[in-house]
């Protein structure tokens, strides 16, 4: 008859094997972009997010033994969607999700708040328009562990936000504050570019007395890859989520009664010209 210690050990090993979590693998691509491999470790089913350089992403999939289900495309710009055609030449018959008909090889145009699954992972497509009129962020929840992640493309960066190429400040405010900003604070943020140092330098310029920004900048000096942050973190140091800060309002020449959308508009204009 096995001892209680052996029974406990066997049960512990079983639980350790059974309870696996969502896995996110950042893949640096081009000069400063990120693609991501998103995996349900239990089923080994996965997708790639914005795989602009398939020759860098596909080896990761092969090494991990992942069954590729498809591509999550955040928006149509070439540095995000430009690898779709080549990837499908290597991996035909996979789904390409996105919110814009300009996305190469698009097979499924998602609706806002549409939910689908990758293995057991629950993915919700969130329209976060402004950078482009078809920008989508993908919010992912692992129901077994309650791990949460969001892939934000060029809408929300660590310490910053995207340019208003096809939208305006009202749309970006909605995307940042009413959509992404309302996600759970522990949601991990995986953005489309490694812009963190330059974003935080601007943040320190408009809010010089924010010690959290200074600490994060110092942290960046020893970390080449700065993803992920969290939604909660962003409210501590991202000026585009801190529009009520007296220092930021002073920096853009507005008072406490000013419309936060106007604060955001002026802040983005300042960032566009910041060196």
Automatic annotation (TrEMBL):
Keyword annotations: Hydrolase, Metal-binding, Zinc
Which pathway is recorded for this entry?
A: Secondary metabolite metabolism; methylglyoxal degradation; (R)-lactate from methylglyoxal: step 2/2
Taking every annotated instance into account, which residue ranges of this chain make up the domain Metallo-beta-lactamase?
32-193
GTP-binding listed as a keyword: no
Q: Which NCBIfam families match?
A: GSH_gloB (TIGR03413)
Q: Which PANTHER family match?
A: BETA LACTAMASE DOMAIN, TENZING NORGAY, ISOFORM C
Q: What is this protein called?
A: hydroxyacylglutathione hydrolase
Q: Which organism is it from?
A: Spizellomyces punctatus (strain DAOM BR117)
């Amino acid at each position: 008859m096995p001892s209680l210690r052996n029974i406990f050990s066997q049960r512990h090993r079983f639980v350790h094997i059974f309870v696996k979590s969502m896995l996110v693998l950042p893949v640096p691509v081009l000069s400063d972009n990120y693609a991501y491999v998103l995996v349900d470790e239990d089923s080994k089913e996965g997708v790639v997010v914005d795989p602009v350089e398939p020759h860098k992403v596909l080896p990761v999939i092969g090494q991990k033994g992942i069954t590729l289900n498809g591509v999550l495309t955040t928006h149509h710009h070439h540095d995000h969607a430009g690898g779709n055609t080549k990837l499908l030449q290597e991996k035909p018959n996979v789904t390409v999700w996105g919110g814009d008909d300009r996305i190469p090889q698009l097979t499924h145009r998602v609706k806002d708040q549409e939910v689908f699954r990758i293995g057991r992972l629950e993915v919700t497509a969130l329209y976060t328009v402004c950078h482009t009129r078809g920008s989508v962020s993908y919010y992912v929840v692992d129901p077994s562990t309650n791990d949460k992640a969001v892939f934000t493309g060029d809408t929300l960066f660590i310490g910053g936000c995207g340019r208003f190429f096809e939208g305006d400040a009202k749309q970006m405010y909605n995307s940042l504050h009413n959509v992404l900003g309302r996600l759970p604070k522990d949601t991990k943020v995986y953005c489309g570019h490694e812009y963190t140092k330059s974003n935080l330098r601007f943040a320190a310029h408009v809010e010089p007395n924010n010690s959290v920004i200074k600490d994060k900048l110092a942290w960046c000096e020893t970390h080449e890859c700065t993803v992920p942050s969290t939604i909660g973190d962003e409210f501590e140091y991202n000026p585009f989520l801190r529009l009520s800060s007296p220092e930021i309002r002073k920096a853009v020449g507005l008072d406490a009664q000013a419309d936060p959308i106007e604060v955001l508009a002026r802040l983005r204009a300042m960032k566009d010209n910041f060196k």
